[in-house]
Amino acid sequence: MTTTCLGDNYRASAHGRESRRHLACDAVGRPLALTVTGGNSNDCTQFAAVMEAIRVPRTGPGRPRTRPVHVLGDKGYSSTAIRTWLRRRNPDTIPERADQIRNRLRRGSRGERPSAFDKQLYKRRNAVERCFNRLKPWRGITTRYDKTTESHQAAVTHASLLM
User: Fold this and answer.
1) What region, left, alpha or beta, does residue 25 occupy, with left being phi > 0 and alpha being psi -120 to 50 degrees?
2) pTM of this prediction?
Protein backbone atom coordinates (compact mmCIF):
# COMPACT_ATOMS: atom_id res chain seq x y z
CA MET A 1 0.00 0.00 0.00
CA THR A 2 1.82 3.06 -1.18
CA THR A 3 -0.59 5.98 -1.23
CA THR A 4 -4.04 6.45 0.24
CA CYS A 5 -6.40 9.00 -1.29
CA LEU A 6 -9.26 10.48 0.71
CA GLY A 7 -12.48 11.89 -0.63
CA ASP A 8 -16.20 12.17 -0.10
CA ASN A 9 -19.25 12.01 -2.31
CA TYR A 10 -22.59 13.63 -1.60
CA ARG A 11 -25.78 11.95 -2.74
CA ALA A 12 -29.47 12.59 -2.14
CA SER A 13 -31.53 9.44 -1.74
CA ALA A 14 -34.83 8.46 -3.26
CA HIS A 15 -36.46 8.77 0.17
CA GLY A 16 -35.51 12.41 0.71
CA ARG A 17 -32.60 11.61 2.99
CA GLU A 18 -29.15 12.78 2.12
CA SER A 19 -25.95 10.90 2.71
CA ARG A 20 -22.26 11.47 2.36
CA ARG A 21 -19.78 8.70 1.67
CA HIS A 22 -16.28 9.17 3.06
CA LEU A 23 -13.87 6.87 1.25
CA ALA A 24 -10.20 5.97 1.32
CA CYS A 25 -8.73 4.21 -1.68
CA ASP A 26 -5.29 3.07 -2.76
CA ALA A 27 -3.28 4.63 -5.58
CA VAL A 28 -4.88 2.31 -8.12
CA GLY A 29 -8.43 3.31 -7.14
CA ARG A 30 -9.52 0.29 -5.09
CA PRO A 31 -11.61 1.16 -2.01
CA LEU A 32 -9.90 0.51 1.33
CA ALA A 33 -12.34 1.95 3.86
CA LEU A 34 -15.74 3.62 3.84
CA THR A 35 -18.05 5.38 6.26
CA VAL A 36 -21.52 6.70 5.49
CA THR A 37 -22.88 9.72 7.33
CA GLY A 38 -25.67 12.24 7.01
CA GLY A 39 -25.42 14.78 4.22
CA ASN A 40 -24.64 17.65 6.57
CA SER A 41 -21.48 16.12 8.07
CA ASN A 42 -18.09 17.62 7.39
CA ASP A 43 -15.11 15.80 5.82
CA CYS A 44 -12.83 16.26 8.77
CA THR A 45 -15.26 14.71 11.28
CA GLN A 46 -14.91 11.26 9.68
CA PHE A 47 -11.18 11.35 8.93
CA ALA A 48 -10.04 9.29 11.92
CA ALA A 49 -12.85 6.74 11.43
CA VAL A 50 -11.92 6.20 7.79
CA MET A 51 -8.19 5.97 8.48
CA GLU A 52 -8.66 3.51 11.35
CA ALA A 53 -10.93 1.30 9.21
CA ILE A 54 -8.14 0.63 6.69
CA ARG A 55 -7.01 -2.99 6.79
CA VAL A 56 -4.87 -4.41 3.98
CA PRO A 57 -4.01 -8.10 4.46
CA ARG A 58 -0.43 -9.18 3.93
CA THR A 59 0.46 -11.85 1.41
CA GLY A 60 2.28 -13.87 4.05
CA PRO A 61 1.77 -14.23 7.77
CA GLY A 62 1.31 -11.21 9.97
CA ARG A 63 -1.16 -8.56 10.93
CA PRO A 64 -2.84 -6.52 8.20
CA ARG A 65 -1.34 -3.16 7.27
CA THR A 66 -3.18 -0.22 8.75
CA ARG A 67 -0.84 2.67 7.99
CA PRO A 68 -0.47 3.96 4.46
CA VAL A 69 2.89 5.22 3.32
CA HIS A 70 1.47 8.57 2.15
CA VAL A 71 -1.94 10.26 2.50
CA LEU A 72 -3.45 12.54 -0.17
CA GLY A 73 -6.51 14.66 0.61
CA ASP A 74 -8.33 17.73 -0.60
CA LYS A 75 -8.77 21.03 1.25
CA GLY A 76 -11.67 19.58 3.24
CA TYR A 77 -9.11 17.58 5.22
CA SER A 78 -6.92 20.61 5.98
CA SER A 79 -7.40 21.13 9.69
CA THR A 80 -4.97 21.42 12.55
CA ALA A 81 -6.30 18.28 14.22
CA ILE A 82 -5.89 16.18 11.07
CA ARG A 83 -2.41 17.51 10.38
CA THR A 84 -1.37 16.76 13.98
CA TRP A 85 -2.82 13.24 13.69
CA LEU A 86 -0.95 12.66 10.43
CA ARG A 87 2.37 14.08 11.68
CA ARG A 88 2.54 11.30 14.25
CA ARG A 89 1.78 8.59 11.69
CA ASN A 90 2.15 9.34 7.98
CA PRO A 91 3.42 11.98 5.59
CA ASP A 92 0.63 13.84 3.87
CA THR A 93 -0.06 16.03 0.86
CA ILE A 94 -3.05 18.20 1.68
CA PRO A 95 -3.30 21.79 0.35
CA GLU A 96 -3.89 24.58 2.84
CA ARG A 97 -7.07 26.61 2.69
CA ALA A 98 -6.70 30.35 1.96
CA ASP A 99 -7.95 31.35 5.42
CA GLN A 100 -5.35 29.11 7.09
CA ILE A 101 -2.57 30.69 5.04
CA ARG A 102 -3.79 34.20 5.95
CA ASN A 103 -4.00 33.34 9.66
CA ARG A 104 -0.53 31.80 9.65
CA LEU A 105 0.96 34.87 7.94
CA ARG A 106 -0.92 37.21 10.28
CA ARG A 107 0.64 35.53 13.33
CA GLY A 108 4.11 36.06 11.88
CA SER A 109 6.91 34.35 13.78
CA ARG A 110 4.39 32.90 16.27
CA GLY A 111 2.62 31.09 13.42
CA GLU A 112 3.48 27.52 12.61
CA ARG A 113 5.55 26.47 9.63
CA PRO A 114 3.69 25.86 6.39
CA SER A 115 3.09 22.22 5.66
CA ALA A 116 5.03 20.58 2.86
CA PHE A 117 3.03 20.28 -0.34
CA ASP A 118 4.12 18.28 -3.38
CA LYS A 119 2.13 19.42 -6.41
CA GLN A 120 3.15 16.44 -8.57
CA LEU A 121 2.12 13.95 -5.90
CA TYR A 122 -1.18 15.77 -5.34
CA LYS A 123 -2.11 15.15 -8.97
CA ARG A 124 -2.52 11.47 -8.08
CA ARG A 125 -5.47 12.29 -5.78
CA ASN A 126 -7.83 11.81 -8.72
CA ALA A 127 -7.72 8.09 -7.90
CA VAL A 128 -10.46 8.60 -5.32
CA GLU A 129 -12.65 10.41 -7.85
CA ARG A 130 -12.10 7.57 -10.32
CA CYS A 131 -13.05 5.12 -7.57
CA PHE A 132 -16.37 6.94 -7.01
CA ASN A 133 -16.98 6.94 -10.77
CA ARG A 134 -16.42 3.19 -10.87
CA LEU A 135 -19.05 2.76 -8.14
CA LYS A 136 -21.64 4.90 -9.96
CA PRO A 137 -22.81 2.24 -12.47
CA TRP A 138 -24.26 0.38 -9.48
CA ARG A 139 -27.73 1.94 -9.52
CA GLY A 140 -28.56 1.11 -5.90
CA ILE A 141 -25.38 2.81 -4.72
CA THR A 142 -25.78 5.88 -6.90
CA THR A 143 -29.40 6.55 -6.02
CA ARG A 144 -29.10 5.35 -2.41
CA TYR A 145 -32.30 3.30 -2.32
CA ASP A 146 -31.23 1.57 0.91
CA LYS A 147 -33.05 2.79 3.98
CA THR A 148 -30.39 1.85 6.51
CA THR A 149 -26.75 2.80 6.64
CA GLU A 150 -25.71 -0.81 7.20
CA SER A 151 -27.38 -2.07 4.02
CA HIS A 152 -25.87 0.79 2.01
CA GLN A 153 -22.39 0.02 3.36
CA ALA A 154 -22.95 -3.64 2.51
CA ALA A 155 -23.86 -2.72 -1.08
CA VAL A 156 -20.75 -0.53 -1.44
CA THR A 157 -18.60 -3.29 0.07
CA HIS A 158 -20.06 -5.81 -2.38
CA ALA A 159 -19.39 -3.50 -5.33
CA SER A 160 -15.88 -2.84 -4.03
CA LEU A 161 -15.13 -6.56 -3.85
CA LEU A 162 -16.24 -7.00 -7.45
CA MET A 163 -14.02 -4.10 -8.54
Assistant:
1) beta
2) 0.76
